[in-house]
């Protein structure tokens, strides 16, 4: 099993594409997996914490000034700015508005350190961005949800934020405990094994997230194309804007990781926290959102690494 996981780690790019293809080519399997999505999201958080370890997580506190500032801008100021603009345009109650606000309010995906490794960037810095963003998520998301007209009553928002916090803390604590017990000082081969486990968990989730696209592609391919265009525009637009804005500043050393974090958000966390009827209008978008994330290692390999 360890050999298989190390093989997956070495061929992570192809595994990501295989996950997308499997989700689209095997609709029955994808639909069955989608029933387990909340549990798989929690499992991915556990695997990520297992890979990172509590020592690296503690290292995130060394850069709280730029780290927390980046998290506040990317996860709270940005979605609130979009929400204000959408209100001004009279579009705040549309599915597109819900998709844009939720995706920009989410933290970096749990697999972002893997993306950083694939791009030859500093995975340690990426871990810091992801750990800080995920830890702060219940706090940064609360004002966004309270001001979003489509989410529900404040009591529902508070319950959702509390559930997210419990899932994050529980899954992360389990991962850290397993790391301390099983891999206190992991060897290179063991790190590759853990990387492979992260890639595998990452790929399984995308199979389930592709489920809404299967029926939609047959019933309304034009609608899928529009949602896919929106997903690509948001993800690559945020990556390019972040990279361009930071590459000549004092934060140029973390521009790449922050760009990955800005454009690759863990919207799947909302599958755990929000009622299905709230997310129903944007399930196709959530499926399409996987496309730019999983294609980032291929599209951005030269552009991000060069900067």
Describe the structure.
Mean pLDDT is 81; it is low at 301-307. The N and C termini lie far apart (37 Å). The chain has helices at residues 2-10, 12-25, 27-34, 37-59, 64-88, 95-105, 112-118, 123-147, 154-182, 188-209, 211-219, 221-246, 255-263, 269-273, 276-279, 283-299, 301-306. With 307 residues, the protein is mostly helical. The chain is 81% helix and 0% strand. It has a single domain (2-306), classed as Up-down Bundle (Na+/H+ antiporter like fold). Helix 8 (123-147) runs antiparallel to helix 9 (154-182) and helix 8 (123-147) crosses helix 13 (255-263).
> What is CATH's topology name?
Na+/H+ antiporter like fold
What is the overall number of helices?
A: 17
Mean pLDDT, nearest integer? Answer: 81
Count of individual domains: 1
The Cα radius of gyration reads 18 Å
CATH architecture: Up-down Bundle
Shape: globular
Distance between the termini: 37 Å
Oligomerization: single chain
Helix content: over 70%
């Amino acid at each position: 099993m360890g050999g298989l996981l190390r093989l997956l780690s070495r061929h992570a790019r192809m595994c990501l594409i295989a996950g997308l293809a499997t989700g689209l080519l095997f609709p029955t399997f994808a639909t069955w997996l989608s029933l387990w999505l909340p549990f798989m999201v929690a499992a991915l958080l556990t695997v990520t914490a297992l890979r990172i370890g509590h020592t690296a997580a503690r290292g995130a506190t060394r850069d709280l000034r730029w780290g927390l500032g980046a998290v506040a801008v990317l996860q709270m100021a940005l979605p609130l700015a979009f929400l204000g603009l959408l209100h001004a345009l009279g579009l705040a109650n549309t599915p597109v508005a819900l998709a844009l606000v939720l995706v920009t309010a989410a933290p970096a995906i749990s697999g972002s350190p893997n993306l950083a490794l694939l791009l030859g960037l500093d995975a340690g810095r990426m871990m810091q961005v992801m750990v800080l963003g995920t830890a702060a998520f219940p706090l940064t998301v609360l004002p966004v949800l309270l001001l979003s007209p489509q989410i529900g009553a404040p009591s529902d928002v508070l319950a959702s934020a509390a559930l997210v916090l419990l899932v994050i803390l529980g899954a992360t604590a389990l991962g850290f405990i397993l790391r301390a017990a099983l891999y206190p000082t992991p060897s290179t081969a063991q790190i590759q094994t853990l990387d492979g486990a992260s890639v595998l968990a990452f790929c399984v989730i995308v199979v389930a997230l592709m489920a809404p696209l299967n029926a939609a592609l047959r019933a309304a391919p034009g609608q899928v194309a529009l949602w896919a265009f929106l997903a690509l525009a948001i993800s690559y637009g945020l990556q390019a804007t972040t990279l361009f804005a930071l590459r000549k500043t004092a934060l140029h050393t973390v521009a790449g990781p922050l760009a990955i974090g800005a454009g690759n958000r863990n919207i799947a966390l909302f599958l755990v926290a929000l009622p299905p009827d709230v997310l129903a209008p944007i399930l196709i978008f959530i499926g399409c959102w996987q496309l730019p994330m999983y294609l980032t290692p291929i599209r951005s390999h030269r552009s991000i690494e060069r900067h």
